[in-house]
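**User:**
If convenient, please work through this fold.
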Amino acid sequence: MKKEKSATALKYDGKAAPKVIAKGHGELAEDILAVAREHGVLVHEDEELIKLLSQIELGDSIPKELYVVIAELIAFSYVLQGKFPDKWHNIHQRIDLKT
């Protein structure tokens, strides 16, 4: 039997902790994912993380225990999009900036 899909959407304004702005299961989860993809939002699928995020009420900020993992996902999504801080230097040459 196929497991029902779940989705939780976060909004991050660059200042305060990310907030839960949408969440759902089944068809609603599919709709959340479709809207995200339509708007170019990168989607990360992680069953354990979604279990934690689904416990947060709509409009609430993520708890401090999730700051590091969410910050890493946000930072990685920026790198995938070719976005870097103004004063960032690729000192280890680990990221190919020529794409």
